[in-house]
Amino acid sequence: MIADDHPLMRSGIAAVLSHSPRIAVVAEAGDGDTAVALFRQHQPDITLMDLQMPGLGGIEAISAIRRINPRARIIILTTFSGDAHIYRGLKAGAGGYLLKNMARTELLDYVLSVHRGDSRLPADVSRNLPTVLTMEPLTRREVDVLKLVATGHSNQRAAGELGLKEDTIKSYMKSILAKLRARDRTHAVTIALKRGFWES
Where is the Response regulatory domain (predicted)? Predict the structure, then answer.
């Protein structure tokens, strides 16, 4: 099954996979809710799951599918190689992580490899794994604070926006800088975007 909100991306991947007599695309979904429903109906051997979709997101859909079938083999399909995405995908139960720019032959080999039970990552993703396994992720509130900082909010304005005290924002920023090992606010925003804590 292919779950991606871009019809052209879905049809392109389906066309590539159809070249292998060992692969049949049994379902396509344009959002996470449909993906979960179609998984329940078709029980595909492999699911390719986009991260960014309307409604239920990719990570949440992976978790829902794994509740239906804990042995489900799911490959995250994405343009992002940030280590926070790797962390969340692996934690949700993905057995692979596929960048959308992967070459056609690699796509076929990768899908068949995961079907055999291998759990491997593309080279440019696996390079980030040491960071993923040792990093302390930002909390949802810390991401909220950093997003406001990224748009130019002062501590005072961020506090007003979130209904917090200015000292609380300062405390959050101190924690954020420490976790990201950032020199300053701008550096923290750059690192957070690169690691995939949120998309620009």
Answer: 1-115
Residues spanned by the domain of 163: 136-195
Q: Does residue 87 share a domain with residue 69? A: yes
Asked whether 86 and 121 are in contact (CB, 8 A), the reply is: yes
Question: Which one of 83, 110, 133 terminates a domain?
Answer: 133
In the block, residue with structure tokens 């920023």: 173
| pLDDT tens per residue across span 78-126 | 776 666 766 777 778 888 787 777 767 788 888 888 888 776 665 655 5
- Residue 12 structure tokens: 């392109």
| Residue 52 · residue 77 · CB < 8 Å | no
Question: What is the domain-level CATH number for residue 143?
Answer: 1.10.10.10
Kindly report, residue by residue over 34-56, the tens digit of the pLDDT.
Answer: 999 999 999 999 999 998 888 88
Q: Are residues 85 and 157 in the same domain?
A: no
- Domain assignment present for 200: no
Cα-based distances in Å from 5 to 49, 51, 52, 63, 106:
10, 10, 8, 18, 22
What is residue 35's predicted lDDT score, i.e. its pLDDT?
Answer: 96
Hey, what's the torsion of the CAs at 179, 127, 77, 57, to 10 degrees?
A: -10
DSSP strands (E only) in the chain: 2-3, 28-29, 46-50, 73-78, 96-99
Work out how many domains the chain is built from and give that number. Answer: 2
Residue 116 lies inside a defined structural domain of this protein: yes
